[in-house]
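Worked problem 6 (solution included).
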Amino acid sequence: MDLFFVRVSSVSHPWLFFALLFLSAGGCQQAASQAPPERPPALVAVAVAQARDVPIYLDEIGRCVARENVSVQPQVSGRITEIHFTDGAELKPGDLLFTIDPRPYEAALNQAKATLNQKKAALDLARLEFARVKNLTGMRSASREEYETKRNAVEVAEADVAGAEASVQTAALNVEYCSIRSPIIGRAGHRLLDVGNVVNPNGNSNTPLLMIERLDPIYVDFTVTENDLSTVQENHHHATLRAEVRLPDRPNDPRTGDVTFLDNTVQEGTGTVMLRATLANADRLFWPGRFVKVRLILKTEKQAVLIPATATQISATGPFVYVVKADSTAELRPVVLGQRHGDLVVVRSGVKPGERVVTLGQLAVMPGAKVRIEETPASQTAKAADGGKS
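Solution. The predicted structure is:
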């Protein structure tokens, strides 16, 4: 308001003095009418803090490994005459893979059988002669020396028969080895040799004929740091640990398996310990050599408080949230956060179950000021009630 000081004696006309007083009073009323209006309540969205059991976990990177990996090698030398599978085929134990020319080994088997028959005939003759000498000895007609000679001949013949039988078995095995079969259930890789190639198990080249990998179940190998080892050991001692495994391109489709192996040493240089989880993989979703995300479940935290992660804000002093009180005023609460669980986050202190936290519109909120709550869509309410399970 502007003040006017006028000496009455200096005003030549009295009506001018009263006019100035009227203008001054009008200016004061106009200034009073321009006072700033009261700030309206901020429009916000809220969610109710939930309490439920959640897992405590470690997130790691792992790699898929075939449970069984077999390098198919020849056991006899020869030329490959047939291939009985297609690359990438699903194989069962005993499925025929390759045929090596069996004719030389069949001939060797026939020769071994003939030798066996010869040795058996010699054994029969030796037994017959020994029986004759044995009878003569009883009648005192044969010498002791002749008796021992014939008995020794029988034993030698029996040994010859046993050796011939072993030769027959060896020859039969060689014939069997000409048919190379799958030793495990698994998926065939691409063949590394074609029909017509000559293979030799004793050669300098160790190139296998084929690689077969068993894909169901499948292993997932991953590591934890030595700082987490004590916690892992403690929980692994009390119960079987579980692991949730996710493909990078399918983060919302986890598969759970048991931790079946914990290494017995910390790797020098990396300070990590290897673990292995075993997963069912009948659909071949997981592939050997592929990297995956592993969540190692250590234990369950009972009745943890969860709020949407969007409710948390960061200040110079740490994370905080706005809690809407019963009188619709917003209170700033410092919080201690735990692990994320999908769209939710654990609050270890600062918020109690059932309290409402602001999830949208925090920038317009003033601590202690009134807020106006926007209606939450039904889908968002259902998601919050479900706990945002990952």
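Discussion: The longest strand covers residues 50-72.
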